[in-house]
Write a structure and sequence with these properties.
Length: 414
C-alpha cells in the first residue's frame, strides 16, 4: 500500500473485513479529517472526549491510534491547488474501513461539486444514517421533544442528489429536451433539467440496512417515506421495492401495517417490527403531531435531506445532531452541520454533533461501552446547564462554556 503524502501509523492495527461485518483490533487505527472552519476547534475538543471515554471504558486494553488524513482547505495546503479530496484520503478510508470527519467547506466554482457528496459517491456510502433524539434540557421549539426518537436512513447515491443535471441554455440541455420531446414529454425550451434515477439496487440495499438496524436494536417499526402518489416510477417504486425486500428477507421479523389491523387487531405480536409507509408531506405533519409513533425511517435522498434537518430542529438544532455515511463495510461518521466559518478558531462552537457522531462510530466498532459513556457525558453536562453559546442563549440560568471547556466538563461527567 503506498500513499503520496500520508503514512499508516506504525503503532496499532487496521480493521479487517470479517464476513458481513468487521474485525476490530484492540489498538485500532482510525483516520480522521479535522474539517474546515470551526472543524479545527471541534476536532481538538472531540478527540479528548473520545480518548477519555475509551480509556475509562477499557482501561489500557483498548486504544484508538488516530491517523490524520486530509480533505478541504487543509488538503489544499498539503497537496496543492485545487486538490480538495486527494486519492490518499480515499485510499486511506478504503484501507481503514472506518473514519470520522469534521465539516468541510463546499468549494465555490472549483473543480469539485461537494467534497461530502463526492466522498459518499466514490466510496459508495449508500446509507446516510442520522439518529435524532432529545438530550434532556436542550431547548426545543416543541412542547414534548422527548417524544421524538427516530433513526433516519436516507439513500445517499441516487435521486436528484446524484447531480445529473444540465444548465439552462446549453447545447446539452437542448439535446435532452429534444430527445424527451421525441418521447412525448414536452419541456419548456428555457429549462434547466435534472434527472432523478431511483433503482431497485439502491432502494433495496438502503431499506435492507434500515431493517437490519431495526432487527438488531429491537426497534418497533420501520416507515418507508416517499412521494409515490405523484412520482410513481421513482418514489412509488422505492416504496414497493422496500416492501418486496422486507417480505423476501425479513418475513419472520416484520408485520405490515395492513396485516397489523386485519389480523392482529392493531397490536403488534411480540418481537415483530411493524412495516409502514407514509407520503413525505404527511410524514412531516406526523413527526410533529405524533412523533412517538415513528421509529426507524427509510427514505429517498431528497426527502431524507429535509426530514433529517426538520427532526434535528425539533429536538433543539444542529449542535447535537450526529450522522454517518455507511456502505457495505465502510463507515464515515460526521457532523450534520457545516463549517460555521464565522465562529472559526474562536473556541466557541458546540462540538456535540461530532462527539455524538463519534459515539455512533464506537457503536459501529462494537465498542458500545465507550459510545454510551460519550452520550452519558454529554447528557450529564447539558443537564447541569454547562453549555456552549448556542444552547446558553436559549436556556435560563446556564453557564456559558467555550468549546474546550465543554469538552473538559464532559470528560469530568463521563
Ligand atoms: P453551517 O456551517 O451549518 O452554519 C449555519 C449556522 O448553524 C451557524 O451560523 C450556527 O448558527 C449554526 N451552527 C452550525 N454548526 C453549529 C454548531 N456546531 N454549534 C452551534 N451552532 C451551529 O451552514 P452554512 O453556514 O450554510 O455552511 C458553511 C459551509 O459548510 C458551506 O461551505 C457549506 O457548504 C458547508 N457544509 C458542510 C457540511 C458537511 O461538511 N457535512 C454540511 C453542511 C454545510 P448561529 O449563527 O445562529 O449560531
Amino acid at each position: 500500500m503506498s500513499f503520496e503524502k500520508i503514512r499508516i501509523p506504525e503503532e496499532g492495527q487496521l480493521i479487517q473485513p470479517h464476513g458481513d461485518g468487521l474485525k476490530v483490533p484492540d489498538q485500532v487505527i482510525l483516520p480522521f479529517i479535522e474539517g474546515d472552519g470551526t472543524g479545527r476547534d471541534i476536532w481538538k475538543a472531540s478527540v479528548r472526549v473520545f480518548d477519555a471515554a475509551v480509556s475509562k471504558a477499557y482501561g489500557g486494553d483498548r486504544k484508538v491510534v488516530w491517523w490524520e488524513i486530509f480533505a478541504g482547505e487543509k488538503s489544499l495546503e498539503v497537496y496543492g491547488e485545487n486538490v480538495w479530496l486527494p486519492n490518499d484520503t480515499l485510499e486511506a478510508i478504503k484501507t481503514a474501513y472506518v473514519a470520522i470527519k469534521g465539516p468541510l467547506t463546499t468549494p465555490v466554482g472549483g473543480g469539485i461539486r461537494s467534497i461530502n457528496v463526492a466522498l459518499r459517491q466514490i466510496l459508495d456510502l449508500y446509507a446516510c444514517v442520522r439518529p435524532v433524539s432529545w438530550v434532556p434540557g436542550v431547548p426545543s421549539p416543541v412542547k414534548e421533544p422527548g417524544k421524538l426518537d427516530v433513526v433516519i436512513f436516507r439513500e445517499n447515491t441516487e435521486d436528484v442528489y446524484a447531480g445529473i443535471e444540465w444548465e439552462q441554455g446549453t447545447p446539452e440541455v437542448a439535446k435532452l429536451i429534444e430527445f424527451l420531446g421525441s418521447m412525448g414529454k414536452e419541456i419548456r425550451k428555457d429549462s434547466g433539467v435534472g434527472i432523478k434515477p431511483i433503482s431497485v439496487t439502491g432502494s433495496e440495499r438502503l431499506v435492507r440496512k434500515a431493517l437490519q438496524h431495526a432487527v438488531q436494536l429491537k426497534r418497533k417499526s420501520v416507515t418507508l417515506v416517499h412521494k409515490g402518489n405523484i412520482q410513481k416510477f421513482t418514489e412509488g417504486a422505492f416504496n414497493r421495492w422496500g416492501y418486496d425486500v422486507a417480505a423476501r428477507e425479513f418475513g419472520d421479523h416484520i408485520v405490515t401495517e395492513a396485516d397489523l389491523w386485519s389480523k392482529f387487531d392493531g397490536k403488534a405480536p411480540d418481537g415483530k417490527i411493524v412495516l409502514k409507509d407514509r407520503i413525505a408531506d404527511a410524514m412531516f405533519q406526523q413527526l410533529l403531531l405524533r412523533p412517538d409513533e415513528y421509529d426507524v425511517i427509510a427514505t429517498t435522498n431528497l426527502n431524507g435531506d429535509y426530514l433529517s434537518d426538520a427532526c434535528a430542529a425539533q429536538v433543539g438544532g444542529l449542535g447535537l445532531a450526529p450522522g454517518s455515511n455507511i456502505g457495505d463495510h465502510i463507515g464515515v461518521f460526521e457532523a450534520t452541520h457545516g463549517t460555521a466559518p464565522k465562529y472559526a478558531d474562536q473556541d466557541k462552537i458546540n462540538p456535540g454533533s461530532v462527539m455524538l457522531s463519534g459515539a455512533m462510530m464506537f457503536d459501529y466498532l462494537g465498542w458500545t461501552e465507550a459510545a454510551d459513556l460519550i452520550r452519558k457525558g454529554i447528557a450529564n453536562t447539558v443537564a447541569k446547564k454547562q453549555v456552549t453559546y448556542d444552547l446558553e442563549r436559549l436556556m435560563d440560568g446556564a453557564t456559558l462554556l467555550r468549546t474546550s471547556e465543554f469538552a473538559s466538563a464532559i470528560i469530568e461527567n463521563l
